[in-house]
Amino acid sequence: MIIVMKDHASAEQIAGVVTQVEAQGFRVHLSQGEERTIIGVIGDERPVEVGLFEVLDGVERTVPILKPYKLASREMHPADTLVPLDGLKVGGPRLALIAGPCSVESRSQILETAQAVKEAGATALRGGAYKPRTSPYAFQGLGEAGLELLVEARNLTGLPIVTEAMSEDQVDIVARYADVIQIGARNMQNYPLLNKVGKSGRTVLLKRGMMSTIEELLMAAEYILAQGNTRVMLCERGIRTFEKATRNTTDINAIPVLKRQTHLPVILDPSHGTGKVDYVAAVAKAGVAAGADGLMIEVHSHPEKALSDGGQSLKPEAFAKLVKDIRRIAEAVDREV
Amino acid sequence: MIIVMKDHASAEQIAGVVTQVEAQGFRVHLSQGEERTIIGVIGDERPVEVGLFEVLDGVERTVPILKPYKLASREMHPADTLVPLDGLKVGGPRLALIAGPCSVESRSQILETAQAVKEAGATALRGGAYKPRTSPYAFQGLGEAGLELLVEARNLTGLPIVTEAMSEDQVDIVARYADVIQIGARNMQNYPLLNKVGKSGRTVLLKRGMMSTIEELLMAAEYILAQGNTRVMLCERGIRTFEKATRNTTDINAIPVLKRQTHLPVILDPSHGTGKVDYVAAVAKAGVAAGADGLMIEVHSHPEKALSDGGQSLKPEAFAKLVKDIRRIAEAVDREV
Amino acid sequence: MIIVMKDHASAEQIAGVVTQVEAQGFRVHLSQGEERTIIGVIGDERPVEVGLFEVLDGVERTVPILKPYKLASREMHPADTLVPLDGLKVGGPRLALIAGPCSVESRSQILETAQAVKEAGATALRGGAYKPRTSPYAFQGLGEAGLELLVEARNLTGLPIVTEAMSEDQVDIVARYADVIQIGARNMQNYPLLNKVGKSGRTVLLKRGMMSTIEELLMAAEYILAQGNTRVMLCERGIRTFEKATRNTTDINAIPVLKRQTHLPVILDPSHGTGKVDYVAAVAKAGVAAGADGLMIEVHSHPEKALSDGGQSLKPEAFAKLVKDIRRIAEAVDREV
Amino acid sequence: MIIVMKDHASAEQIAGVVTQVEAQGFRVHLSQGEERTIIGVIGDERPVEVGLFEVLDGVERTVPILKPYKLASREMHPADTLVPLDGLKVGGPRLALIAGPCSVESRSQILETAQAVKEAGATALRGGAYKPRTSPYAFQGLGEAGLELLVEARNLTGLPIVTEAMSEDQVDIVARYADVIQIGARNMQNYPLLNKVGKSGRTVLLKRGMMSTIEELLMAAEYILAQGNTRVMLCERGIRTFEKATRNTTDINAIPVLKRQTHLPVILDPSHGTGKVDYVAAVAKAGVAAGADGLMIEVHSHPEKALSDGGQSLKPEAFAKLVKDIRRIAEAVDREV
Question: Model pTM?
């Protein structure tokens, strides 16, 4: 960390800061510029509260130098982490294609959709049993009955299951049924939940919060990794901006940024990233071209009957067509489907 | 809701939408413009999933007409809801002044700060025992020991306690000690938690998510109200924008907007809203002038030793000065401290 | 447009709005819901000021139905507009690759860079002679001397020139030298400038403002088209969001949205979209996969000596490698380089 | 500036950066931490292009230490600048109240409104003759005829005139008629225009761009000041965020931030800041409480007939009421109206 002093900081104020820095067990490196004095703080700054220094007399601001995460960092762990998903190693050359409905709604819906995405080339089935909904009056998911239907779909198709746990209380039951526990965007900073899935040891798909920076996403992953669970896939699913033509703004930049900053695999969700079925295919292709390790796509056998997110769900035929297109892009970047 | 058809929508497509609308139990009102056909959906649209209509052939988009919340709405409940906070009625003429440290850190810290804010004129004490921290390496709060210290501070000063519950599992224990359960910004859309505090019957201070719209804040309140708990105070605490000079951007507009849209009282938190101690007083005064029913302000007896948020915490003397300034503004808008 | 009345709007208020709507020459279509009355305004609403209706007693809000642009709209002009750029038809199967330095800095710099990008496969040369700089103390461009150097580079390489005009006063001189006049992000809503380049008849590359919506970009294009100039290319160059890991957030969604909403060709600028040389290639590939009609990329023969934007400029070798990668992606989406 | 090296930067890379820094005329201060080397750049960094360093091998990022503006900075100029506006000194104890219609529309409209705001207590008259409109089909202002009507209104009421120039070509004519030249939000970074109003010597009201940071606003002011013109008032008018309940988000934090960073007076425009007449008064009061030196408010004698911005314009009676309320707030912060 460096501490930038105000322009007229007195020798006494500088000495006060130095004392405080050393009291925290750091070494100090002082640099007197023409207009500003800068105090370098030498040591592992990660666990330190910057406010300790920012309130001292004469301090203008502090600038962190080290990244606040360690376990998630590629610096500390240069090799790609490969996360097993049934036969597939996510993060390796073959792309993960996670497809299925937003919510599990009925036996016929989930079985029909599961078979369709399997035939089209999906490598995992998604489907929500517990649904975080903005409105208390909206469909909230089938709960455990939904999990049972997912298992039936897995038995039928062989596809591993990705489904969301919304609270620490749901982790055990979801872990009992699912192959991958999804942490939704609204829960990216639900720390009790992150700790619990960390302890569960189960593979986690961690979605970026719609209001979270890439650094915060990596800090959320750090919570899970700090519990000893390294089976973490990150998922970019669009951020909230001023643009209203789409439901969210897919942060395509996040893909190369994450691939550089972390060793964890990165999945793109173009369904939430755009929120409109018309734009899903273009953005899915963009994600693969940018280096994503997989895609998560909403597919519904009958979107016009969907109890949630119908407007962004592909029909099975459209998904099958997209997989073909994705295969061509994948080959153009030396990946495979 | 209205459904806007594409410009070349066929008679067949229009008929298809009408059928689907009627199948959902609504009446239809058709309006043929020169360039567009519009289908009005008559009935209570709140529980309806718009995706049902958006995926139909020929549909361009849907526009909701009714607000998605009911119980939180001033239309349904024109009179101000007054939330009791010890002797005070929050939402009435007298302002709530909730002050105290970000985290409870030690016995001396909380007792000293509690006495100082009491003397300065605070009407409630804030202090976190369970802390949501971006980093797993940062201080996470004292837990139940912190709650016990808060009770000791209440016994000493008579100030009611406001403290956060981060998950449904913490609601019971927090409710046992605290007068008001705070739902933090990161948990504004943690629906299991909202349901649980709704059922608890305890007074709730619901903070706006840093990238949540005002409508989403009211939908979160709706979850609590739907459980029969009407003791809800809303709290504007700054939103995330592109501006970097401050930690968040205080959405001062939100105060008159909320006062118009809902009957619930509105508190402003200028400490998180600005994130810098230098700007807290100006924004606190602005909040009162704009019509806020109270303020929530971080005060720490020794900010330079704070384990969290020191950089935005006022010293007790500065808080005492601010209360005097606030009193003058309050009088200028026919309120009191 | 539809006008949504407040929930307790009186018959008199409704009549007042109807009178005002009809006074503006529109027909009215009234729809009485259970909780709200809606007044449909039938006719071409584009030139109408919505404030006229929003201030009337009893009105809650207005909702536009028609898109505010006409000439830029694909509805009015379904076929793709192909914009000639030397031999190339931008918007057709072959991609435009516009490359070169941020600023023209010296004869050797621009000639060297121009030759390098030509050899690598570029189809046009970019380079700024007039530079909009945040700081008055920064290099402001060589002005007309820079334009002359660009012409020399064109003579040497045969590449058409794309360069910016920052004000209406610069349009004539830029038009004298350049093949394409660039309107920069900061000037997207500089209406006198838009009118002037519209009248110039010269091909225009219109960059999206960093906090402008897609609709506003199309309205800016509409200004140019309204002057009879249809040679307009749109350029997505990243928007401003809360994310700080990159200089801007490339709005990849904007590519399929624009391709659907308008007939004009769409170029992606991944250099400004990311602001970091490390991420340019990934996002360039994403843009082509998403359907962009071309790319605009900063290349500098010696980025470490650049007077502007060195941090986002590719070296010629990196650009040559990127063109090869782009060719593969292009083929995977049935385009060519 | 400090330059942060990558974690495994070699001695050779560090030496390379040092050479480049010294070649630019700076002194170097090296600091070897455990995980990172930091290179301090000693000297006036303001005119330096950071890209020069960011592209060097082994560099992770650069961090500016000095503020990029000088003339606008309170550090360089601690005393408040008072800008004369007719008899008033803006920035002194008495608040500037600039009121009037968005656009000048007709003789009766502007004279009637001018008299009404004068009677209510306004100290200057606003009104646009040249209007930047998103749509080419919207009313674009009366041009010079509008300026003549403003002069007639000034003759009638004695109020000085504030009106916008949209391009450098309009500066001379606007300067001929107006007391204060307004630079609109869309033109905050129109550098030829800033230079021209700088040279004009006329008082300038510089509005913050809706997408601009506070630092960029100060850099825009720096352009004007660098031309020797110190009669600059800054105007916060709301920024663009994800919130949709209001047209813009008033950045109330910007008021104390600007008052601390700069010596120039700060005006708040709550009409654009909210975009809805219902919220203008609350936010106007907030601005005064936060320390604004004045307000700019849209008032129209007949908002329901306004050709622009009717929805955010107060009627004269509402403005008169607001001035009374403002007076009370002003007194509560030791200011006057």
Answer: 0.96
